[in-house]
Amino acid sequence: MNFEYTEEHVAVRDAAREFAHSELLAGVIDRDTEGKFPKEQVKKMGELGFMGMMVDPKYNGGGMDTISYVLAMEEISKIDASASVCMSVNNSLVCWGLEKYGSEEQKEKYLKRLASGEIIGAFCLSEPEAGSDATSQKTSAELVGDHYVLNGTKNWITNGSSASVYLVIAQTDASKGHKGISVFIVEKGQEGFVIGKKEDKLGIRGSDTHSLMFSDVKVPISNRIGDEGFGFTFAMETLNGGRIGIAAQALGIAAGAYELALAYSKERKAFGKPISQHQAIQFKLADMATQIEAARLLVLKAAWLKDEGKDYAFASAMAKLYASEVAMNVTIEAVQVHGGYGYVKEYHVERLMRDAKITQIYEGTSEIQKIVISRSIIR
User: Fold this and answer.
1) Whole-angstrom Cα distance, residue 89 to residue 119?
2) Confidence of residue 1 (pLDDT cuts 50, 70, 90)
3) Residue 213 forms beta bridges with which residues?
4) Helix (H) or strand (E) holding 70
5) How many angstroms separate the Cα of 124 from the Cα of each of 137, 168, 184, 352, 356?
């Protein structure tokens, strides 16, 4: 075992930390209040290589390992989880799926632009009646000549209006159940493709979450990823890696709240001394630090397994389950440490608490993670 980061890991982490503080911190409260997508900041993230970190350099990616990716995700999530979820989807769900399973033509046409941050992507699996039950796809794709005709609705799509490329999961043969699900690349602006209103959310309010409607949208056969019936496997394999990114996001939210609480506890005085000198606060800080370190080790283990080419589904489910719980626990306690100041926006911790909740829900709820974990244990 080696618990030391490489020089490259440290450099990536420090670059992400510097970017978060210099580019994301200013205006983060206003973006949250207004529900404003961090367009300019995401563009700069692309220019710095944060939008295609693990993609092969021949496709304009950074060629980095998963550990570098989660270190960057943690640092950016400490400051702005709305920016980090955009980064996570583009890296883990869109770029990874395209590079792993896409054709060379698809990689040249789409992956290069996605990895460089020139454009961003979206992953379209959830539907009004297909959240945790991803097998219940109602969106259909019917083959007509040299193209498919796509019809249906997708819900809760991150980067919904900002993306240029959408990976859409759809049913091509309902009689085969989940084995009749396929995946398609759909471009923004196609006739019949309508982007619904932006969701007014509790947290990650800067992230643009939309419903998408497809009405007789024509998708060429060349835009299908893999064979017909490959869609469900594609989605599940992609989400296994996506969970590592969201676990890193949850870790970052927790760590960001903890750092704020620790700093505040040294400044705020009560009963004649800093509140950090009171055992009630010291014990809170001790619990927060311990939970964060445990979550970090789970996240890094899942990332390491992925980099080593080993089975990481079990580890990524554990990492996401635990890190998201830690994010909720720590942010709630961070608000408590701040007292009344924690309840107002200018101290940031209330926003981090609101942002934390979604990490227990998207890319597989905590309940789904427990199913994955328990099945692995029993098997």
Assistant:
1) 13
2) confident
3) 153, 194
4) helix 66-79
5) 11, 5, 10, 26, 22
Chain CA centroid to CA 29, Å: 20
Question: Which pair of structure tokens corresponds to residue 131?
Answer: 């959240």
Asked if residues 275 and 281 have their Cβ atoms less than 8 Å apart, the reply is yes
- Summarize pLDDT for 95-115 with one digit per residue, the tens: 999 999 999 999 999 999 999
| Calpha distance 154→289 (Å, rounded) | 39
**Average predicted confidence (pLDDT) for the chain:** 97
* Averaged pLDDT, 327-354: 98
Number of Cα atoms under 13 Å in the Cβ half of residue 212? 36
Distances (CA, A) of 283 to 258, 275, 286, 332, 352: 13, 11, 5, 14, 21
163/153 Cα distance (integer angstroms): 17
DSSP helix/strand/coil, 191: coil
Give the Å distances, CA to CA, from 287 to 264, 294, 356: 17, 11, 17
Predicted pLDDT of residue 172: 98
Residue indicated by tokens 């107002």:
344
With a threshold of 0.85, does the pTM exceed it?
A: yes
DSSP string, 116-155: TTSS-EEEE--BTTBSS-TT----EEEEETTEEEEEEEEE
Of the candidates 299, 171, 196, 164, the one whose C-alpha atom is nearest the C-alpha of residue 243 is 299
Rounded Cα distance, 39 and 117, in Å: 11
Residue 363 designated active-site: yes
pLDDT per position as a tens digit, 38-72:
999 999 999 999 999 999 999 999 999 999 999 99
Angstrom CA distances, 256 to 3, 70, 132, 266, 327, stand at: 22, 15, 29, 16, 10
Write out the DSSP string of 307-334: HTT---HHHHHHHHHHHHHHHHHHHHHH
Determine which one of 127, 228, 333, 363 is catalytic: 363
Average pLDDT over residues 235-263: 97
Q: Which residues have CB under 8 Å from 183's CB, separation 6+?
A: 97, 167, 168, 169, 170, 224, 225, 226, 230, 231, 234, 235
